[in-house]
Design goal:
2 domains; nine-stranded mixed beta sheet; disordered N terminus; two-stranded antiparallel sheet; 12 helices
């Protein structure tokens, strides 16, 4: 049984284990589908609805079982060969640079979080703008794939999307129509946007979700050591929601991250990504971007299976591409 032919099964009304009063509470809190329940998890559901934690846990377990039955999630205890065969058919979104695609094993992977970090001017936002266009060049989905762009630093520019689309022989008006933009004004607004994004993703056939950048508001609003633990906890929860969105909605999630300098570093690169171990443990792939004259360097820092190596890419009219020989 596949999910595509059973979208009607995903409404919470289909869960016979939940009573009418509980369903009303869930809907009022924004939980409309079984996917919403799985993505947010028992803690968020309990906080949003006031339902007892043990009941929320049971509800989430049942929702997960339903998604396993319709093929959204893998059933527990399957062979590595089954996982391998499934991964070979997963779609990857091209970046616009052959070198970059090769570094990533074919492009931005779906059902995963890809983190781009580096100092200003290294191409993080340019890559994000390019991905908004290249995701629309997916022949498998008939050029109908769209992008969701969460802008936290006021860096999204539709003019850049138009220029990249024109350079890639795509109608700029169509390309702009296929990019959904949500501007986050503070950390709490950013969390609300991401929590509500699964409904937008399913409605608009979105294949990539971009958050540029993930930590900007948290760094600005959580100042001092006294609030560091709360900041890290909120970032951790947000990242896990993004990871569940990527897997449940079968999309790619790309986040950009800032860097901070270590004044005590004597040898090596003093720059390191913000967010600490919370970011390091949650991101599936981490890429470090650096300047190299007119070109840029992308280094694979962390990956479940890629080797740590570097490639060169360039910023150009098409967004990003390969350096001219």
């Amino acid at each position: 049984m596949s999910e595509d032919g059973n979208e009607e099964l995903l409404d919470i009304d289909t869960m016979s284990e939940i009573g009418p009063a509980t369903k009303t509470s869930l809907r009022q809190a924004g939980f409309k589908t079984i996917k919403d329940i799985v993505i947010r998890g028992p803690t968020d559901i309990a906080e949003a609805t006031g339902i007892a934690m043990d009941k929320c846990t049971t509800m989430c377990n049942r929702a997960r079982e339903i998604l396993e039955e319709i093929g959204v999630f893998d059933k527990p205890f399957i062979t590595a060969n089954q996982i391998y065969e499934k991964r070979k058919s997963e779609y990857r979104i091209p970046t616009g640079s052959k070198n970059f695609d090769e570094l990533l094993g074919g492009g931005i992977e779906t059902r995963a979080i890809t983190e781009l970090y580096g100092e200003f001017g290294t191409g993080k936002t340019q890559i994000c703008h390019t991905l908004c266009v290249t995701v629309q060049q997916n022949e498998k989905h008939g050029n109908l794939s769209k992008a969701l762009y969460v802008d936290t630093e006021n860096t999204f520019r539709p003019e850049r999307i138009s220029d990249i689309a024109s350079a890639r022989k795509i109608d700029p008006s169509i390309a702009l129509e296929n990019v959904i933009v949500a501007k986050a004004y503070n950390f709490s607004h950013q969390e609300v946007i991401i929590q509500e994004s699964p409904g937008i993703i399913n409605l608009h056939n979105i294949k990539i979700m971009i958050v540029d950048s993930i930590v900007s508001h948290y760094r600005a609003e959580f100042i001092g050591r006294s609030v560091l633990a709360e900041r890290q906890q909120r970032i951790n929860r947000l990242l896990h929601i993004l990871l569940r969105i990527a897997e449940t909605c079968k999309i790619a999630v790309v986040i950009t991250n800032q860097i901070q300098s270590s004044p005590d570093a004597i040898f090596g690169d003093p720059n390191k990504p913000t967010g600490g171990n919370v970011m390091a443990h949650t991101s599936t792939y981490r890429l470090y971007l650096k300047k190299a004259g007119k070109n840029r360097i992308a280094r694979m820092v962390d990956s479940p299976y890629h080797s740590e190596r570097e490639i060169l890419f360039a910023l150009n009219d098409q967004g990003i591409g390969d350096p001219q020989k």
